[in-house]
Amino acid sequence: MAQSEPASSMAAGQPPPPPPLLTNVVAQNNNPGSYDELHRKCKDVFPMCFEGAKAMLQKGLSSHFQISHTVSISPMNTGYRFGATYVGTKQVGPQESFPVLLGDTDVNGNTSATLIHQFGERWRCKVQSQVQGGKFAAWQGTGEYRGRMSTLGLTVANPDIISESGIVVGQYLRRVLPQLDLGAELVYQYGKQVPGGHFSMLSYAARYNGANFIATGTISGSSALHLCYYHKQTQNLSFGVEWELSRRGGQEESVATFGYQIEMPEDGVTLRASADTNWTVGGVFEKRLHQNMPFTLALSGMLNHVKAVGKFGIGLIVG
Amino acid sequence: MEVVEVIDRRVEEELDDEDVEETLGERFVGLGEMFPDWLRRGIVTSANLTWSLATNVGSFAKSTLWIVSTSAMIMVVPYAIEKERSDMEKSQMAQQRQLLLGPSAAVSAAKANQLGPY
């Protein structure tokens, strides 16, 4: 949001300079990135609608340490959350430093924490855990190897030795052509609550990185299909189209969503909006209230035409 | 009573237009009989069809208008307003510069902002 664009590319009438609009997608050493983030570029275009009111205060205590206070009032959850972020001193990329420690807690002690660290140049690990009601509700660990052309990931989630249950996920993503990434994921779940004791699902994924667009697709077994298309029209305008098809228990569900994101960086204005085939439209509008002061106002609106339900939210972000 | 008897008698013999008592409406309906049956049925059907088509189109247009306008309020209007405000601010700045520093400054300011002279 805080990109400082030269004013010349803001021309309404002039075509923008033929841009390498998506430079950040092709990572420096041809690494295709993580499997989980295949669809992220497209997902980022869609608005994160919220309901009710929220206020957020972010404060950097030093260049490595940041805390945030969030107060939210909404029918879903009303309360206060405190978050802390520590970013370490090991610089890997222009935007990446490790280790990263994230913590988030509310008044009742429901806490989630994440630790991400990169060992050497190629190995990355991530540990996440969640405490709810004084008990470990969930935790998972991920090890990732980021090679020259491929990423290999192994995730273990909620392993329980006593009751013998857990989820293991293996992921592989490889850059086959300069523009084309292919990947596969195997999810294996075991435990007593799983019918038959075991369950596994194989997914395939593909991503095509065009000059100003990214097309991604995932097929999970024979039950789900997920296609995304992301298009960057100009520096400040991008579109996303998503199609999700899933079949569960003989019931087919298909949702297509169109969304776009438009920005005015010099005014600190961002609008994300989406419309889908369930007749839901949503939009989140963010505006920096003053150029030199860190106040951002966020307005959220969501409307379902079939159910005639509207949800609106207002938020203030300081920092 | 007498009149009715008279009419009855007349009906038995032959109807005479001038003596039959009927309202204007009845006369009007009766006029329709000069058209053949199939034509009248056709006209009625097409009139019904036109009416239902008109009401359907009307309700469709109504809901379309509602959906489009409410969706636009969420999806487009905030940006449009902000864009308008920003453009106006820029042109005001250019104008101010022109007043303060003369036309050449305004032109250079406008160039910097990528706007027209005003």
TrEMBL record, chain A:
Q: Name one GO molecular function term.
A: porin activity
Listed A to Z, the keywords are: Ion transport, Membrane, Mitochondrion, Mitochondrion outer membrane, Porin, Protein transport, Transmembrane, Transmembrane beta strand, Transport
* InterPro entries, per database record: Porin_dom_sf, Porin_Euk/Tom40, Tom40
Q: Which domain of life is it from?
A: Eukaryota
Please list every transmembrane segment annotated in the UniProt record, as residue ranges: none
Q: What is its main location?
A: mitochondrion
Give yes or no: UniProt keyword Nucleotide-binding. no
Record's family?
Answer: Belongs to the Tom40 family.
Task: Give the protein's biological function.
Answer: Channel-forming protein essential for import of protein precursors into mitochondria. Specifically required for nnt-1 accumulation in the mitochondria and may be involved in the secretion of daf-28/insulin from the mitochondria. Required for embryonic and larval development.
- What name goes with this protein? Mitochondrial import receptor subunit TOM40 homolog
Automatic annotation (TrEMBL), chain B:
> Mostly located where?
mitochondrion
A single GO BP: intracellular protein transport
* UniProt cross-references to InterPro entries, sorted A to Z: Tom22
The record's subcellular location field reads:
Mitochondrion outer membrane
Q: Among its keywords, does the record have Membrane?
A: yes
TM ranges: none
| Keywords attached to this entry | Membrane, Mitochondrion, Mitochondrion outer membrane, Protein transport, Receptor, Translocation, Transmembrane, Transmembrane helix, Transport
One family name in Pfam for this protein: Tom22
**How does the protein associate with the membrane?**
Single-pass membrane protein
Mind naming one GO cellular-component term on file for this protein? mitochondrial outer membrane
Keyword Transmembrane helix appears in the UniProt entry? yes
Return the PANTHER family for the record. MITOCHONDRIAL IMPORT RECEPTOR SUBUNIT TOM22, MITOCHONDRIAL IMPORT RECEPTOR SUBUNIT TOM22 HOMOLOG
Similarity section: Belongs to the Tom22 family.
State what protein this is by name. Mitochondrial import receptor subunit TOM22 homolog
Q: What is the lineage of its organism?
A: Eukaryota, Metazoa, Ecdysozoa, Nematoda, Chromadorea
